Amino acid sequence: MTHISVAVVLGGTNEERNVSLASGRAVVEALRSLGHAVVAVDPAHGAVPREEEARMLGGAVGTDPPDLAELARLDSSAVGAALAELPAIRNADVIFLALHGEDGEDGKFQALLDLSDLTYTGSGCLGSAIAFDKRVSKELLVQADVPTPPWTSRALGAREVQDALGLPLVVKPSNGGSTVGLTVVQQPEELEPAMELAARYDADVLCERFVPGRELTVAVLGGEPLPPVEIIPSHDIYDYECKYTPGMSRYEVPADISAAESARLARRTSRPRRAPVWQSWPAKHTWRFVRSRTAGSISFGGTTDLCGAWRRTACRVSPPPAWCRRRRKLRASPSPSCANGSRSRPWPRGVATRRQRPEPGPSRGGHSEAWRTPIAPTATPSPPAAGGSLTSLRPG
Asked: Is this model's pTM higher than 0.85 or not?
């Protein structure tokens, strides 16, 4: 097996920093066990010396996200756009993205790497940006006939949201993950504080109808949907603590659903890839669905582009597809041609990806069914709210 040099980018300066550190540590250990030369790179500090990894990358994820004041302090001294010029990044055969959240999953760092002509894992700039923005994802999913709970437009107040959606409902940042800033609102007096909490993490606050039911996840690898996994959290919802505290959630693999329902989920995860509007949708991601307790219907709940790699995440417990079982170890092969015709570089087959052609922008169309559409007309999808050390590189 050919050994390669890999820069694992992890950590970052957003509320999912601790999750990313845990994912990154797992990736570093796995790659080194296969004999590859690996260096950890944290946008908050730069390249991490190997002798400092235990101190700088250690620690548990915890039951709560990092304090916003501490994240602001890290961001003020972060490497920023100069990250792509670090020798650890420039000299790597491939850059493994283990970042989560803003500046990692939203396409900005991918755009930086594209501009620097560097090879990296995961999806391209546009696919990452679409998958990260919950509002844009919902707007596009209705055009692919994937059911999603009704939601409201951006500029509604608490009273208008309640009149439009009723209760209970979910309030969350449109751009973000790990359920940070998310609240299930049961009573009218809870709505305004929930919107204020979500606004601390993103300027675009998304409100949608709450669908109580079973949490189902489908991981997609290489465009192929894996068997559905049911997540059974200890709390009422699969929140931050249940996600990252061992023993707080159970994973049923495969999920105890009918063959017809499993096939329907597989069709829904592959349908957007066939639609022209979804040509940039990531080929490696996870879908979250909710199976309603009352109606038995299955609706879209969210998606993740850079799946967590630590412990028993839903993506890791999914059985691998047949082609992956046949190729358990990383093997070197020439990289695909880049969009700008740059040179080929060795990278692990089946792991690193690069845009092979310019990604088309999303087209827009009308919404056909009222139960799948926003309660109020939505504005034209816009980029995520400004913030973070790579803001100037946010995709337009």
From this structure: no
